Amino acid sequence: MPNLEHPAYPAATLLHLESLVPCRESQVSMLLSIFGERQQLSFPSIFIYGHTSSGKTYVMQTLLNILQLPHVFVNCVEYFTSRLLLEEILIQLQSCSSETEQTSHVPCDNFNDFVRLFKQAVASQELEGQTLYIVLDRAEQLREMEANVLPAFLRLQELTDRNVTVVLLSEIVWELFRPNTGCFEPFTLYFPDYSIGHLQKILSQNHPPEYSADFYAAYINILLGVFYMVCRDLKELQHLAVLNFSKYCEPVVSGEANERDTRKLWKNIEPHLKKAMQTVYLREISSSQWERLQREDGEPGQLKGLSAHTHVELPYYSKFLLIAAYLASYNPVRTDKRFFLKHHGKIRKTNFMKKHEKTSNHLLGPKPFPLDRLLAILYSIVDNRVAPTANIFSQITSLVTLQLLTMVGHNDQLDGPRYKCTVSLDFIRAIAR
């Protein structure tokens, strides 16, 4: 029995709509009730909010397209000023009907001009007999525009005296939108996060035709078991499901296991999912690079090239400066003579030194060091003779800008600037190689 029912639309259309928006039937049913029939006067403004990847944009686009309702869809991040936003609405409004020719671009400097041009566009497109929907995605950007833009959109139906509904889509609650001077209150609708059961149902719909639905559902269940605690983003989970499915199928393709042998399939895919979990959201490498690394590597747990942070390209002397800074941050000053001088003589190991060297300097964190100590270590570790030119000092400034070094204290100190090295030991090892 279909969950969506409305007398204005055919049952087959509603059934098709329901299949395209799984786990959002209650929200779609509420929107259908608010919209009513095409010629009926709808609510002036609707505010839809929910966390990222909860289906707000997709549901609105699918609903308006399947029911063939006249609408304008604008992303407020792309059109970040009021003039760009208003002009884009008018441009899309002109193209609502393919029968009429495109009119020339008309500049729209303020909301008064927009109301006048909006009335003309609606009359020319013969949209007066049905509701027109203006959907503003990422509507929180409206707060950065002029103070009259948001209240005017909420009262657009009243200002234009036309059957128009403004739909605001946002990730934040209405209380953070409401102006201090007050405004027309929109109808608010909340899109909750997808539960793990909803995610299982949605992701399982995309199973490849060459494998059974149960086999792919078992794979999705394993994927969610690993990633659900760290990632609830549907788009990210869809990306991970597509990316790792070929590795999950390897034992079945090679004949080592069948589709029901979940234990072997799990042992094969587990190292890859754990490695992918370390880089979730980061997109350190492309999908094609990930798949190529999976095919080329013999040991799945040792996938190379996944940490882009250890492969930063730096100038020649910047690498030596960073190594010298790391040595200066984590080695005591008294050890410089022992490490960097060839004929340093005997160093007596006193009880004081033994007591303090028991604690690892890596656990204590980096220590600040002066500029002259950094340059002294640099001269000792570089084979060639390095002149203290402006090029060297500019590279130190660049390392501070890249946040690989941090300047400690004030610039007006008499003894010169002091720095700290902020990179890890693995980073330095990769640079040193």
Automatic annotation (TrEMBL):
Parts of the chain that traverse the membrane: none
Residue ranges annotated for the Orc1-like AAA ATPase domain, each copy included: 21-167
GO process terms (BP): DNA replication initiation
Record's keyword terms, sorted: ATP-binding, DNA replication, Nucleotide-binding, Nucleus
GO cellular component: nuclear origin of replication recognition complex
Tagged with keyword Transcription: no
Domain ORC5 lid span(s) in chain numbering: 216-283
Boundaries of every Origin recognition complex subunit 5 C-terminal domain copy: 314-433
Localization (cell): Nucleus
Gene Ontology terms for molecular function: ATP binding; DNA replication origin binding
Gene3D superfamilies membership: P-loop containing nucleotide triphosphate hydrolases (3.40.50.300)
Family of the protein in this entry: Belongs to the ORC5 family.
Subunit structure: Component of ORC, a complex composed of at least 6 subunits: ORC1, ORC2, ORC3, ORC4, ORC5 and ORC6. ORC is regulated in a cell-cycle dependent manner. It is sequentially assembled at the exit from anaphase of mitosis and disassembled as cells enter S phase.
Protein task: Component of the origin recognition complex (ORC) that binds origins of replication. DNA-binding is ATP-dependent. The specific DNA sequences that define origins of replication have not been identified yet. ORC is required to assemble the pre-replication complex necessary to initiate DNA replication.
Protein name as it appears in the record: Origin recognition complex subunit 5
Organism from which the protein derives: Alca torda
